[in-house]
Design a protein that fits this description.
The chain is of the alpha/beta class and about 210 residues long. It has a single domain, classed as Rossmann fold (3-Layer(aba) Sandwich). It has 9 helices and 8 strands. The protein has a 6-stranded parallel sheet with strand order 2-1-3-4-8-7, sandwiched between helices. β5 and β6 form a beta hairpin.
Length: about 210
């Protein structure tokens, strides 16, 4: 039976995005692809350390999950992680229904929920009121959807998602601290590095 949303959120610690992102990256040891949503979500992914398998969204709000789904379908041997903010995911909730229908076992979604459009002035999103993205994901068919209670629970949920198959969604409640860095603004270089990192283009000659 699904735990009531109010109880789940009452027991959820408010965490720091940069720390959660570093913890995630530290668990990646199989050349997993990571698709970072726009803004602070991918800024902290960039600050967590260079990985050729990271793709950093620039200006395309809500497309981290659709792009991650495409990579997961194209490369079923590779685990794929989508990092998305609450505001961006709210723009593309239909993507969760598509993910549930395709049911890729190699896809994990991490929703960074700070209840605000932080980089445009901290206007509240719907999750600042009654919306619960974990409950929404379950309702759209992603049964493996859970709130991370704290940092240790987040790491546990990531390990479970990688070992048990997906699709999975992990919700993380965040504070509103600024990002730890800022991604380079070179779309061509981001695309080229990522494509070489996941093997769809040959590596640069030595």
């Amino acid at each position: 039976m699904t735990e009531p949303a109010t109880r789940a959120l009452a027991n959820t610690k408010t965490m720091y995005r940069a720390d959660i992102t570093r913890r995630l990256v530290a668990l990646l040891d199989r050349d997993e692809a990571v698709i970072g949503g726009i803004g602070n979500t991918n800024f902290d992914l960039w600050a967590a350390g260079p990985r050729r398998q990271n793709f950093y969204m620039l200006g395309s709000m809500g497309l981290a999950c659709p792009i991650a789904l495409g990579v997961a379908i194209a490369q079923p041997h590779r685990h794929v992680v989508a990092l998305e903010g609450d505001g961006s995911l709210l723009m593309q909730l239909g993507a969760l229904a598509t993910i549930a229908a395709r049911a890729p076992r190699n896809l994990t979604i991490v929703v960074m929920d700070n209840r605000a459009y932080q980089i445009t002035g901290a206007q509240p999103t719907a999750t600042a009121f009654a919306a619960d993205l974990v409950e929404a994901a379950r309702g759209l068919g992603i049964a493996r959807s859970h709130w991370a209670a704290d940092e240790a629970d987040f790491e546990r949920l990531v390990r479970v998602a990688r070992s048990d198959g997906g699709p999975s969604l992990i919700g993380v409640r965040l504070d509103n601290q600024p990002p730890a860095g800022q991604t380079e603004r070179d779309p061509a270089q981001i695309r080229d590095r990522f494509m070489r990192g996941i093997g769809t283009r040959p590596p640069h000659p030595a």
